[in-house]
Amino acid sequence: MARLFHVPLSPFCRKVRLSLAEKKIEVERVEERYWEQDPDFMRRNPAGKVPVLQLDGVMMSESAAICEYIEETRPEPPLMPSDPAQRLEVRRLVSWFDDKFHAEVTSKLLYERVNKKVMGQGFPDSRNVKDGAKAIKYHIDYMAWLLDHRRWLAGDVMTLADFAAAAHLSSLDYISDVDWNRSDVVKDWYAKIKSRPAFRSLLADQVPGFPPPKHYNDLDF
Fold first, then answer.
1. pTM for this predicted structure
2. Cβ pair 153, 146 in contact under 8 A
3. Three-state DSSP class for residue 25
4. With contact defined as beta carbons under 8 Å apart, do 105 and 139 qualify?
5. Are residues 88 and 187 in the same domain?
6. Cα atoms in the 13 Å half-sphere on the side-chain side of 16
7. Each residue's pLDDT tens digit, 39-65
């Protein structure tokens, strides 16, 4: 069986988990306190980051590369379009969420509120939290613009771009940092992707000291 070394609220780990679940690949999840730099884990990934996936006898790291490997070796159901231009758009949006959204929002909200406490790194930086709360409005508005023109973020079918976005937003939703009332179309998109069987394991996550809000498991939130 495949093994995934992960942290439950990490959006990068969640993106991989969604891809694995959508492809119906059974995986053993191993929670990894990567910040402690355990020698065994550092041998698995000298970069000292999660996720790390052991699959097909290969130890792989970097979430984007992992998801591409899964897609190439298990093409059904597809999470990447066949058209090169559409594939470009998926990759652009995956990068948008994993780079820009992460830097401007996730790192300033989730990492300040949760990661610092879990890692014993002190209290949240109020300035970062304020900046993240402001930036997420811009990103939700951009998603709304995309969804006004498309059924899903990258086009007419669900793709890895939707999983990348949902991975970040679900992590933030766990700590009630998403204003779902800002956009009905984004809220509807999230409800649609949240209802997929691939999402079930994410909704069951529990982080000690951080109980999820009541609406977190509600499919009709």
1. 0.96
2. yes
3. coil
4. yes
5. yes
6. 29
7. 999 999 999 999 999 999 999 999 999
